[in-house]
Amino acid sequence: MRSGLAGLEGSTKMKKDTVYSIYDDPVDAFKFDARVADVFENMISRSVPGYPLVLRMIGVLAGRYARDDTNCYDPGCFPGASTLKMRNRLSRSRHVIAMDNSPAMVERCRANPARDHSEATVDEPTHDQNAR
C-alpha cells in the first residue's frame, strides 16, 4: 500500500512504527510527540483503511471547490500530507493554512513546502495548544 507522502521529491523511506513494541506497564497515554511523528506515516497507513485514497480526494475536492483568493484550512495537519495534496491541486490565487496541536507534527509539516513545487501559498504551519 502506498502512503500519502510517497512519491514526493526528497521524501525519505517510511520509518517502521515500533512505538508500542516494548512492553511498558503502565502504558502511557497516547500522545502525538516526536516518537509518533517520526513513524506517523507507517502508523496511519496501517491503522486507517483507505488513507491514501482519502488524501487524494482531499486534493481533488480542494481543486474543484476552492475559489480564487480564498483560504483552505488543514486543521490537524499531522506531518502535512493533506496540506501537500491541497497545494498540488490549487492555483497561485489560493492559500493553505495548516495547523496542529502537536509541536512535533507541526515541525514535520514545516519541512514539506520546501519539497513541494506547487503554486498555492501556504502559511507557516502553526501549533495551537487549544485545538483538540
Structure keywords:
four-stranded parallel sheet; single chain; disordered N terminus; Rossmann fold; 5 helices; alpha/beta; 132 residues
Report on this model:
The protein is 38% helix and 11% strand. By secondary structure, the protein is α/β, with parallel strands linked by helices. It has a single domain, classed as Rossmann fold, CATH 3.40.50. Strands 1, 2, 3 and 4 form a four-stranded parallel beta sheet that branches. Helix 2 runs parallel beside helix 3 (81-89). The radius of gyration is 15 Å and the shape is elongated. The two termini are 29 Å apart.
Helix-and-strand structural type: alpha/beta
Name of the top-level CATH class: Alpha Beta
- Give the DSSP E fraction (strand runs of 2 or more residues): 5-15%
CATH fold category name: Rossmann fold
Q: Which series of helices and strands comes N to C? A: HHEHEHHEE
Strand elements, count? 4
Stretches with pLDDT under 50, minimum 5 residues: 1-11
The CATH architecture term is: 3-Layer(aba) Sandwich
Largest sheet entry: 4 strands, parallel
Radius of gyration: 15 Å
Mean pLDDT score, rounded?
Answer: 81
Distance between the termini: 29 Å
Number of helices: 5
* Proportion of residues in helical segments: 25-40%
